[in-house]
Amino acid sequence: MTLKLYLDFLSQPSRALYIFFKINKVPFELSQVALRKGEHLSEEFKTNLNRFQKVPFIHDGDFRLTESVAIIRYVSKVHNIDNNWYPKETKAQARVDEYLEWQHNNTRAFCALYFQRKWLFPLLTGRQTSPETMQKYEDNMLACLDQIENIWLADTPYLCGDRISVADIFAACEIEQPRVAGFDPIKGRPVLSAWMNRVRSEASPFYEEAHAVLNKLAEKGGKAKL
Which residues have CB under 8 Å from 68's CB, separation 6+? Predict the structure, then answer.
């Protein structure tokens, strides 16, 4: 039975999994969930698809799994993924895991909060976040981007070494998200810009496929509508 991947392309980890699956030729059936329509909020969705009512998640026969990092680890073992994307060697794998754990309270948290408060919540509620609060969200995000440049990319072309890994895909997908809210994450950041270009190139054409919707929204400079 083919593995089913449930996602929404406006979800950062959804895009990361899609890119990872396609690059590594993981056979899967794509099932899109329209979060903007609230498809994930029904009782039927909760009962039959995902009890946490979020994306992404997979169904692999009778086995159901949520949480994108857990899915990466599972798929890497089941499908014998190429070593550089999720290394088998203990220390190299630990280095990738280090970023995947770090990102939850850093890259993902700060980029997502900025995107939500600047663009998504005002769109859904009609209420703007105060300038003072937005400045705090932006400051946190900028500090996180500083750490990406000055710590994670200080000595290597990729986050976890000399070769691209799934850590780079997850990070890039998170850093792309604020573009929808009119924020350019690479402006004035040559190190980050060069790294993003490397990731996009290494993951092409699947990176572009995964970001097609986001790019269209970002082109509208923060005035996009779902």
Answer: 13, 14, 16, 17, 56, 170
